[in-house]
Design a protein that fits this description.
Helix content: 55-70%
Oligomer: single chain
Number of helices: 15
Largest sheet: 5 strands, antiparallel
Shape: globular
Radius of gyration: 21 Å
Number of domains: 3
Mean pLDDT: 89
Low-confidence stretches: none
Amino acid sequence: MSLAFACGVILSWRLWTSARLFPCVSIIPSLPRIPFPFDYVLLVTLVALLIATAIFASRACVFTTLTTVALLAAFDQMRWQPWCYQYFFMIVALGFAAGKRSADKNSRLMVNACALILVSIYFWSGVEKLNAAFIKETWPDFSRPLFHWLLRSGTAPSYLALAIPSLEILIAMGFLTRRFRKVSTIVAISSHALILIFLVVARENTVVWPWNIAMGLLVLAVFWQNEEISVRRNLTVKHPAYVLIFILFAILPALNLFGVWDSYLSFALYSGNNFEAVIFIDPASRDQLPSSLAPYIWHESEPMFLDINRWSFGELNVPVYPEPRVFRRVAQTACELAHHDRGLKLMIKDQPDLLTGHREDEYYDCDHLQ
């Protein structure tokens, strides 16, 4: 997992630096950017620590790696990508087994913690997709190129969209049973292999390529021949760090269904159950913006708009962290770049109604964002 984390960091290296146009969204608004060249020093240090952790797995490596990731995450919430979040707490679990005392007990604790994380990811990823927006919007956008590539046809029927979340939930449930554990492992690995092939052929979202490979390998290592994992065992572990992981991964994602917990911390990637936002601009305000933002401005309809997600992918190689506080900070930067032109207006679409897919809109101009 440490090597996969390092690959993700390298593929999104601009995300981990401050010398970029896309703003850093720190957890405290007054927290400044990490200045050059210290941001690059931290980037190189993080990659080196992740590689060292993969090789040595000592407590010193684990602790230093976690401290470095936490520091970088505090300076920019854009770094709270689902794969970063997962790897961070799996490295926490690795710390269980890094000690010399009670090696067998600590190893079992590490495996149980990793199993809990994986089960929670599959389960909540499936639950998050059980909404009308996934069926009406996300599934058609995702399946169109996939089915064109596989079958030379258009979008798959909408009723097939329900198979995706149902399969993810069933995989999670299968992991917790001895009878269906190997079947779930095979299905999970096959699904990640199919997704990876599609992403590679389409040359899309390269930062999650190593994530899909790592997920397949982790599922194989944790579940294939592990007879000790069970619901009862996972519920009776009393280690403080394990309890924290249980709360963060198994319990708190439920709050996202009520808009209380962040989407990406609930593994709602590609679920349709996220906030969305664009920045509307007029021709005069467009001329005020840097030319480097031109590829991310949509001209095919009126009004024109700056696509925040395309900007994030284009510059950082990761999707935007889909929360209103991040959107507002990005819009503040756009306003500053355009000298607070009144032609800029941020539109935030709320999380969709689970049954209808309807979203409420909120609008902010540069004066509101100051």
